[in-house]
Amino acid sequence: MKKAAIIGGTGYGAIELIRLLQSHKEIQLTKIISQSQAGEDLSSTYPHLSVIITKKMESLDLEELKKEIDILFLATPAGVAKNIIPSFQDTSVQCIDLSGDFRLTGEEYSEWYGKEPASAEVLEKAVFGLSDIFTEDIKTASIISNPGCFPTAALSALIPLIDGDKIQTKGIRIDAKTGISGAGKGLSEKTHFSTTNENVIPYKIGQHQHIPEIERYASKFAGKDLKVSFTTHLVPMTRGLMCTIYADIKQRETTASILNYLEEYYQEKSFVRILPEGIFPTTKGVAGSNFCDIGAYVDERTNNLVVVSAIDNLVKGAAGQAIQNANIMNGWEETMGLEFIPVFP
Ligand SMILES: NC(=O)C1=CN([C@@H]2O[C@H](COP(=O)(O)OP(=O)(O)OC[C@H]3O[C@@H](n4cnc5c(N)ncnc54)[C@H](OP(=O)(O)O)[C@@H]3O)[C@@H](O)[C@H]2O)C=CC1
Ligand SMILES: CC(=O)N[C@@H](CCC(=O)OP(=O)(O)O)C(=O)O
Question: Where is the Semialdehyde dehydrogenase NAD-binding domain (predicted)?
Answer without folding.
Answer: 3-141
